[in-house]
Design goal:
By secondary structure, this protein is of the alpha+beta class. It has 3 domains: about 130 residues, no CATH class; about 60 residues; about 120 residues, Heat Shock Protein 90. Helices cover about 65% and strands about 10% of the residues. A hairpin with a 5-residue loop joins β4 and β5.
Length: about 375
């Protein structure tokens, strides 16, 4: 519902309302501007165009279906039907609005083919219904066609810029996740280096010190010196502490995914990431941490680009022998889901680590992803 409301209040949608209001004023004769030759049929056609326009604004043109196709047919039929009723200076404005919807539905050069067909019908109506001369028809087609092309190109470049911005956000999120993994890997490498240094240098010298103290205690007259005994005991305790520190450093504390996931979601204005991670839960293996990050990244990208979601819930839990990851968004999802390269790659990544991925409809309206991984 929030997504639909946002579509109705976008700048291009608001501009279309002004254009529709101008057409309505010309048709019904508001503000002392009487329409010419319009009656109940004109009102009905203009009303159907308005309803179809609002319907088209709420449709997802990236996923063609009966909603999109039917709205385009009604828009074209209503606009051309209104033009066929009689000569008017406002009804061709509807063709400019139609051009924006055709641009959303037909990418690339196909929109100009569709506009060519519409304008050929428009030219025929002007000549045979409006009794206009062909010279005037050609000038009018050139003028209205220029406006239609401008509107179509404007929407095309706006959508292209939006798509590029989404791609940039996805790349930025990928880089943030990669930086997080590199930082964690570098931290692990530094921890491992310190453990080796402590073991090889400090441990070796302390062992030599203990051997020398033991040798001194064998000397006549030195075995009763309390300070020597105390020094030997301190050397034993220090060596034990160093060995404990080495074990701690080698064991590591795993990957704190909360920080990595927060960085991952930062470039996206929506959806908002709602994290629910079991307190103290960390993944020991870097490949598992990367698999979880990439899966959440793909869910974020899909929820923003295709699902138009406002929120994405992420729940991570640890069980006896497995980790469970649940993702759910409040967007829209067309069933059955046809996984693209992103979701397919994520499934393959999880399964290569001994896990599984399941897709199903979310109770919140969008997509639900349930994954699990074996626990170390």
């Amino acid at each position: 519902m929030q997504y639909l409301l946002s579509e109705f209040f976008k700048p291009l949608a608001l501009a279309s309302y002004v254009a529709l209001a101008a057409v309505w004023m010309g048709v019904v004769g508001w503000f002392g501007l009487p329409g010419e030759g319009f009656g109940a049929a004109a009102i009905a056609l203009l009303g159907s165009f308005t309803v179809a326009w609002l319907w088209a604004l709420a449709s997802d043109h990236s996923q063609p279906g009966w909603r999109t196709e039917s709205s385009l047919i009604v828009l074209a039929a209503s606009a051309l039907g209104l033009i066929s009723l009689g000569r008017s200076g406002v009804s061709p404005i509807l063709l400019i609005l139609l051009a924006t919807m055709l641009s959303a539905r037909f990418p690339g050069a196909r929109v100009f083919v569709a506009l060519l067909v519409v304008n050929l019908i428009f030219a025929g109506l002007m000549h045979w219904r409006w009794q206009a001369e062909w010279s005037w028809v050609m000038v009018s087609i050139a003028a209205y066609g220029a406006f239609q092309a401008f509107a179509a190109l404007l929407l095309h470049y706006a959508r292209q810029a939006e798509s590029m911005a989404e791609d940039l956000r996805a790349v930025n999120a990928h880089l943030l996740a990669t930086r997080y993994l590199l930082d964690e890997a570098a931290r692990d490498q530094e921890r491992l280096r310190l453990s080796r240094e402590l073991h090889d240098i400090a441990g070796h010298k302390l062992t030599a010190l203990k051997m020398n103290l033991r040798q001194l205690k064998r000397e006549h007259g030195l075995d009763q010196i309390a300070e020597l005994e105390q020094a030997s005991q301190l050397a034993d305790e220090l060596l034990g502490d160093i060995r404990g520190a080495v074990r701690q450093l080698r064991a590591g504390d795993g990957f704190d995914l909360a920080r990595g996931l927060e960085q991952l979601a930062r470039p996206f204005p929506r959806p908002t990431l709602e994290l629910d991670i079991e307190p103290g839960l960390k993944l020991a293996r870097a490949d598992q941490a990367e698999a979880v990050l990439r899966l959440v990244q793909e869910a974020l990208t899909n929820a923003a680009r295709h699902g138009q979601a406002r929120r994405l819930w992420v729940r991570l839990r640890g069980h006896n022998d497995r980790f469970s990851l649940e993702l759910e968004d409040d967007g829209v999802a067309a069933w059955p889901i046809k996984p693209g390269n992103g979701l397919t790659g994520m499934r393959e990544r999880i399964e290569s680590l001994g896990g599984s991925v399941k897709l199903q409809a979310s109770g919140r309206g969008g997509l639900s992803i349930a994954a699990n991984l074996p626990r170390e």
